[in-house]
Amino acid sequence: MPDELSIEDVRKVAKLARLAVSDADAERYRAELAAVLGYVERLGEVDVAGVEPMAHVADSINVLRDDEPRIAYDPAVVEKLAPDAEGGFIRVPRVLGEGGGA
Amino acid sequence: MPPTVQHVRPIIGMEIHVELSTRAKVFAHAPSPACTLLEPAGANVMTDELVLALPGSLPVLNRRAVELSMLVGMALGCAIADLAVWDRKSYFYPDLPKAYQISQYADPICGPGVVEVPGLDEQGEIDLDADPTPIRITRAHLEEDAGKLVHDCAGGTGTGVDLNRAGTPLLEIVTEPDFVSAAQCVAFARELRRVCRFVGATLGVMQRGHMRFEPNINCELTLSDGRKVRTPIVEVKNLNSFRALAGAVDYELRAQPERYLEDGREMGVGAKSTRGWDDERMTTVAQRDKEDAHDYRYFPDPDLPPVVVDAAWRERVRAALCELPMSRLRRYVKDYGLALKQGEQLVEERPVCDLLDASVEAAAATGMDPNDAGRQAANLLLQAGARIANERAQETGDPVLPSDLGVNAPQIAALLAMRAEGAISADGVDTVFEALASGEHAGGDARLVAETLGVIIVRDEGQLETWCDEAIAAMPEIADDVRAGKVQAVGRLIGDVRKRSGGSADAKSVREMLLNKLGQG
Amino acid sequence: MSHSAVESVQASLDVIGARNGELNAFLQVFEAEAAARARNVDAGETLPLAGMTVAIKDNICTRAGRTTCASRMLEHYESPFDATAVERLEAAGAVIVGKTNLDEFAMGSSCEHSAFGPTRNPWDASRVPGGSSGGSAAAVAAGMCDVALGSDTGGSVRQPAGLCGVVGVKPTYGRVSRFGLVAFASSLDQIGVFARSCADAARVLGVISGPDERDATSAQRDDTDFTGQLGRPPEGLTLGVPSFARDEAVSADTRDVFEATCEALRAAGVSLVDIELPHAAHGVAAYYIVAPAEASSNLARYDGVRYGRRAEGVGSLDELYTRSRSEGFGHEVQRRIMLGTHVLSSGYHDAYYVNALRVRRRIKQDYDAVFARGIDAVLTPTSPSPAFGIGEKLDDPMALYVEDLFTVGANLAGLPGVSVPAGFASVNGRELPVGAHLVGPAWGEAGLMGAAAVIERIRGATGRIATA
Predict the structure, then answer these.
(1) Where are the domains of chain A?
(2) What is the ipTM of this complex?
């Protein structure tokens, strides 16, 4: 099992999750997360040789729907929900760079 | 003395994203913009709760998106998976509403395949006599597209998010690094577009971003000291035209040896970089390195049960597969004797090929030689057909194909048969075709229409006599010229008879008759 | 219950008016809408749940009012659509009287992690009602409404039902559509029902169950009448009691009530069999990897861009994300997101997340083996102790997490589970409810509710309205 969780680990995870963690909070989270990770260590005792991971609890397959479009939301709904909108667009601060990660 | 580069061996692979033309999006039920040539009426007019990633929304997989993926995969010679799983790929960006993209990681819908890219001549045109180049497909998977960002939108500041495109089905096709030149990349890209359009999987409008290319380029350099080194892999993102694809690959193949000589960096872990393409300056440009290389944290999407493809389903999809464009092109050029450009024009649109092939089949059933029929039918569609289609397109503002004119295969076969019998002239074929394409005679019997229009070639002696006498009487000086020995002048009289007959008088018989009457027969 | 809907709603609003100030069970009360709806129901044709007053946990979408998930992130959010379960309740004539409090985004076992204050246990206002569906449990226990909907990811319907002395049932995974349930952990979440009797719980569960094309995990099963075995006799019922039901974590009070229950059941003719669930003790650990992992993904959409809270005066996209999320989410939610992100991240993914999914399958296999032997249901206490004091367990995360000891197995295995009142413990002079917990085989809701009804009849602990 990996080593004890560090403050760096907490900062790295917070960044991945887009959460702001102050210095004061960082240690608190570190301790709490370490406590939980310490508790879940016990899973290492379980013999899971040959056991497939269970990501879906039901065994359904091929749940598909027909290619029939439904009526789209009125763009007024989109603007009403958006904290900031302009000319039908949802607005965010200016984004630099090309793409997110596709 | 520092070594120089003696030889550059390009090593290029590609990722291609194809927007599938389903009517609804792949996991959301909202309408998809990729099924029509019309642009959406404004921003954010094609959303629903899932496109917006509202709380409580859930994805449900669109069957047609899966089947189009399978169809394309089969056309590319790919194995279709027994088990396909959809995974969440997590990252934050404003064009990605859920902050994860539903994609496929370990169990894609299509496995390895191979595409035979047509050989090229020195001008980069298809050479049907050259051996095709096999390009191996690694895999193809179905995922959803992101929305679009517009900077300083609507005259304001900031960046505008438009989610019309978010959730459109995307087939991502990955190749092995088998390409060795920009020309080859483009030939492959063109063939891929042809095939995908042909099987009805995409509209393939490049300006709408229906196909986007991401070449991964590096080189093996042979240095003057005998060593071989590999340059770091460069991925060029988001190229949406063949010109940009060719430009980017060519640029990198020139730039990478130079970069190596400057910085000595070789291919290895952490050395891969991402670049964009500047279409005006015709160069690739470095992109801001993201501080954290993405950790996408792939895991199977719990909201979507896996897809299991059994033999019956595979067969149903395979039955929808048709003869592919390159095979048809080969037939049209080799067997029907068409020019390459003519063949390429035909295989651009499947409905036109289907009409051509059906016409040939119908004509062959009446005993006509299929290759003759093919050549004539092709010429009819490419000339009269294309001309009328263009005229109609100008009127309506919408694209029109020769196969959209309402003229069907049996009608075309009948026209070819009449021509073969000598019952109508080449002009007559065009005239009847145009009439069948017009509202008045649409759906009519080709022979009846020909008769109605009076283009059936008349060989009736009495009728011809009458017309000849009328022509001679109308042009006495010309008649005298012919009598006097100027035989060529008979052409003017033939022309007059043609006018009188509405084009139906058999030219050969008319000439004979006139010359006889004027003492030159 | 031969009152008109209007009378029923008025009675409900009266109790809410009298007690919600103290208990904080409801975040929103739909006085005008409920009254209007009640008039329509009375005027229309007879509907199956006509006039039944229902409270909806505030992580289930309603077009009425707001759907806040007890979070500052969605404090003003108005959903443009109703959850399928809500649509079905209203179509059956039930009247929604309001939205109830919960642990923020359903993450918690005490209802103390709400951004809008804790809910108090109607039996003792200094104590927690349990969580995360604490508001719904308290509302039904206090007689503020007839039934309530909650959501159950690791026990969030059953555990508060146990602490509040009401019936709380979670169906088989896929039985009730999740469309409109704000996702916490998609492979574990199910909407569940609170009621003061097994019969009401079974009836309402049946109404909201059934296939839904808007949820790909919704089962294509229409066997949604769960009332068929409510009158079954105790004889012939076989319950399996695993050894961990007597785990050292169980308090003396709870153990006493549980043993008394077992005795009474045996005396009535129920067969109690010792069974083994070898991996049950690892349920909490597996749950606290899988649930946060899925939650970290499901909550990533709350980014301040398209709806919900957006931080003010942000200068960059990154600032928009981090400040909106850190200001919008409470501490527990942020902790679970970080935990989930960590266990999914590169280098830890296989060791934590994938491994937990393997243990999950083992846990399911344990239950499958037990039911294959002819056991009708597995019996344990609902939670290790009766309701604890507000603030008592907030310092150590694991202290709260082990509350779910007996309930997580049903979520991990996708099986139906129910908590039914089994008696009361006397704690500091107050009577606090103790629940008995049953897990049944997949799709066996009718049999499960039948078994619960046996306990209900023998122990006679249901139906009482809680008074402080």
Answers:
(1) 2-43
(2) 0.97
